[in-house]
Structure formats: structure tokens, C-alpha cells
Amino acid sequence: MYKIIGADQKEYGPVTAEQIREWLTSGRANANTQVQVEGSSDWVPLGTIPELAPTPLTSPVPAAQTSGLAVTSLVLGILGLITCGVSALVGLVLGIIALLKINKSQGTLKGSGLAIAGICVSGAFLLLIPIQAALLLPALSQAKTKAQSITCMSNERQLCLGLIMYASDNKEQFPAANRWSDSIMTYVGNNTNVFHCPTLTERGSAYAFNAKLSGKNTKLEDPAKTVLIFESNLGWNGAGGKPDLATRHRGGPIIGFADGHTEIVRPDRLDSLRWDP
């Protein structure tokens, strides 16, 4: 006589060997079902007891197969390293499904360890996503700020060149301050984007002309230190001086000089610049 532990983890018996063989045939038991022989206190897999082996008329008990979902879960969890956790989310779901199916398979499926590993690895990568984002966001913000500064410097450089080309065609004289933006439009390819700072949401001119250079000759004493264009909120054809400076970028305002170069000028250097030629 024998006792067995069913798929519902309940104990049944005592029952005869014939009854157990019938359960094997119907699928209610398999080679991994735990059995206790009468007179023994040990529980052993049914398949290790020769007298309980299926009769010739009984269908053979299939060997347990490794769950494909469990394997896939672990693979997707590991791939989370190169997919920034995207595949780990799928791996976590598949791992849970695989573990449930293995537990309900009555021994026909194996791989619970793989499923658990897939769940753990996938979950770990998902937990790391907020940390990765926290580390990445400042870098992205810094990169965006740097790109905006580069664009703004490029815009001012084109405006400075436009002013210099205008002067070259007009007796080496800069345009009148009150219409400088209109005067150089053809020299910047009629591209109004060069007047726009990428940090501003509103369109329009983000730069002003040094009013002290209105109609002045380009032959200056120190053009590399003489302000030609600067960041300002004076708008289209805006012209003024140092009090009209606007600082939109890290490090200081971007200023274009009469020799055509542009740079970010630190606040402590502003007093060394030439505004009045």
C-alpha cells in the first residue's frame, strides 16, 4: 500500500499499486509525484519505485521539459542592460507566467529556477531605470544648454559678418543703428532665424547693435575688443549699450565683436570691453 501527495499538495491513501497505475494513465500522477511506501517515513518520486512503473498498456510518462518562457524571461532580463530596461519589463512578465505554469504542470515542466532568475534580473534592471534617469537627465540638460550656446554664438557670428559685409559695400561704414536689422537682411540670406536665440520661445530679434557704431567707419582702434552685437531684449532693429545687455546662457552674455569673432564674456570682463570707439 502507498500514500501519495497530489498536485493540490494534499495527501491521499493508503492506495494500491494498481490504483496508482490508473492515476498514471489518467494523468493524475506522474513520475515526479511524491510517494510513501507503507512502513516507511520517506517520500520519494513515484518513478523511482519499479513496481509502480506503468504497465505495457499504460501510456509512458513524458519526461519533464524546460519551460521556454522561463528561458526567454532570463534572456530578456539580461538584455535589459543594453535596452535600458525595455526588454526587462517583458522578461518580468514572462518570468511570472512561466513560474505559474511550471507550478501547475504537475512536473511536466521544469525550469522554475530559470523563471525566478529571469524575474529577479528583470526586476533589478527595472529598479535601476529611475537611478539611470536621475544620472542621465543632468547630462542631457547640460548638453542642451551647451548646444543652445553654440547656436547663439553662431547666430551672432553671422550677424557680425553681415554687418562687416554691409560696411564693405557702403564705404566701410556700419549701417544706421535704427535700421541695422533691415539693412543686413540680404547679407544673412534673408534668414530671420539668425536673429533668434534658441532659449527664447517667442520669435523676433534677440540681439542688439552697439548704437555707438551707428554709421561709423570700420577702421577701429581695437576691433577685437569693440562690441558690435550683443544679447538684448530691445527687439528688431534694437540698438543700445552695456545697460541693455541680457544674459541667457551660462557663463555670461554672448557678444560679437567688430573683428567678427564672438564669445561668452564673463561678468567680471564686461568693463574691459570697448563700447565707444
Order of helices and strands: EEHEEEHHEHHEEEEE
Cα gyration radius (Å): 40 Å
Strand fraction band? 5-15%
Count of all domains = 3
Cα(first) to Cα(last) distance is 114 Å
Q: Can you walk me through this structure?
A:
The strands form three sheets. Strands 9-7-8-10-11 form a five-stranded mixed β-sheet, with helices on one face. The protein has a four-stranded antiparallel β-sheet with strand order 2-1-3-4. It has a two-stranded parallel sheet with strand order 5-6. The model has no long low-confidence stretch (mean pLDDT 86). The termini are far apart. It contains five helices and eleven strands; from the N terminus they run ββαβββααβααβββββ. The protein is 37% helix and 13% strand. The chain is of the alpha+beta class and 277 residues long. It has helices at residues 17-26, 68-79, 86-104, 112-169, 180-183; strands at 2-5, 11-15, 34-37, 44-45, 65-66, 109-110, 207-210, 227-231, 239-240, 254-257, 262-264. It has three domains: 2-52, 2-Layer Sandwich (Dna Ligase, domain 1), CATH 3.30.1490.40; 65-135; 144-272. α2 (68-79) packs antiparallel against α3 (86-104). β1 and β2 form a beta hairpin.
